[in-house]
Amino acid sequence: MAVQPIRKPTRLEPWQDPGQTPYVRIEKVTKAFGDFVAVDDVSLSIYRGEFFALLGGSGSGKTTLLRMLAGFETPTEGKIFIDGVDMAGIPPYERPVNMMFQSYALFPHMTVEQNVAFGLKQDNVAKTEIRERVGAMLDLVQLGRFAKRKPHQLSGGQRQRVALARSLVKRPKLLLLDEPLGALDKRLREQTQFELVNIQEKLGVTFIVVTHDQEEAMTMSSRIAVMNHGVIAQTGTPTEIYEYPQSRFVAEFIGSVNMFEGRVVEDQSDHVLIRSEDAGCDLYINHAVAVPSGATVGVAVRPEKIALSKEPPAGADGRNVATGIVREIAYLGDVSIYLVELKTGKTVRVTAPNLVRRTEMPITWDDEVYLTWRPFAGVVLAQ
Predict the structure, then answer these.
(1) Which residues contact 47 (CB under 8 A, 6 or more apart)?
(2) Rounded CA gap, 52 and 142, in Å?
């Protein structure tokens, strides 16, 4: 899972402050193509200066929602406001918005600086101002020395930055990015994610990015809206989405997760106890849940929150302790992934950091092991 850049602490995030007005307001928006509903009654508030991600799989409605913000599609129902202005009937070229496409759409016969300057020339901006703004933007994206090159003379990451500079040089209030890193290889994509965050923070422009890549969304965004079949399944910060999913879909879509089925047998103000034949043990969670006693629920436990040992855990009362046999091991350098078959027949995924070099792994194939996790590690999901 990607590491999110640590942002400087602030008094209140804008979405936590009741005195803040949303910069982008989507009110009960639906978009239908014939009988197919691509976006279904979506409401969303995005604040000035946010780096907001619309995350979902193919067909989830995220790109359609982005195209409605840009003005390329018209909502079947509902309204979209940008900076307090109703966008109904306002064409794309009159909106305070620019869009960066996945293909970058650079003009191959133009140099880098000509590509970046194109929109300003179309707007009849003075030549001296164009020169100043293009130069400043190329310096910001670290492409000043490539100004005279053509797109085919650039790497994929450099072409991506040219497209970004062209989108930002017109000083839009809102930048929409459609799968902006999809054409890059893994290492370059990871590097560019941090560059995008730094540029966005320097300029203070509101970014809305569409992506199917959960790691990309987690790394770059201040908040994420997870979409599924045209609706928003959950909106929150990367930490909230990952640590406190509100549904099984979100828990399983974001990262890896182990899901245990069980029945609530004890529900108190400070804990809940779930009897799980699936796990082969009782599951203890140290917070209350809004489900009745006797209800069948799922308990999500992330692989990195499970500890493996060949020895029984000291002082354990049998809760949050499962036993099984190691069936598969994948060594990934920084971590190893263990697939453990429980006595119940369920396979559990465990991720363990490789903190020191070892010529022989302490736990190997076919070892009988104990799996343990802390009371705060599990999340109860009724949906």
Answers:
(1) 14, 15, 20, 22, 23, 206
(2) 24
What's the first-to-final CA gap in the chain, in angstroms? 24
User: Hey, is 238 helix, strand or coil?
Assistant: helix
CB of 203 closer than 8 Å to CB of 164: no
The rounded distance, in Å, linking the Cα atoms of 81 and 26 is 6
> Which sequence spans correspond to the domains of the chain?
14-96+172-249, 256-381
Alpha helices (H) along 71-140: 112-122, 127-140
Q: What is the spatial order of strands in the sheet that 85-86 belongs to?
A: 36-46, 24-33, 77-82, 85-86
Residue type, 31: K
**Tokens of residue 12, six digits:** 């209140």
The sign of the CA dihedral 297, 303, 306, 311 is positive
Domain 14-96+172-249 in CATH: superfamily?
A: P-loop containing nucleotide triphosphate hydrolases (3.40.50.300)
Tokens, residue 169: 């040089």
Cα–Cα distance, 147 to 112 (Å, whole number): 5
Q: What is the pLDDT of residues 211-252, one digit of tens each?
A: 999 999 999 999 999 999 999 999 999 999 999 999 999 999
Instruction: Read off the pLDDT of residues 148-191 as tens digits, 9 standing for 90 and up.
Output: 999 999 988 888 889 888 988 988 989 999 988 776 777 777 87
Q: What is the dihedral of CA 76, 81, 86, 90, to 10 degrees?
A: -70
Of all helices (H) and strands (E), which one includes residue 195? helix 186-203
User: What three-state secondary structure class fits 170?
Assistant: coil
| Pair of tokens at residue 164 | 């970004």
How many CB atoms neighbour CB 68 within 10 A?
22
- For the domain spanning 256-381, the CATH number is 2.40.50.140
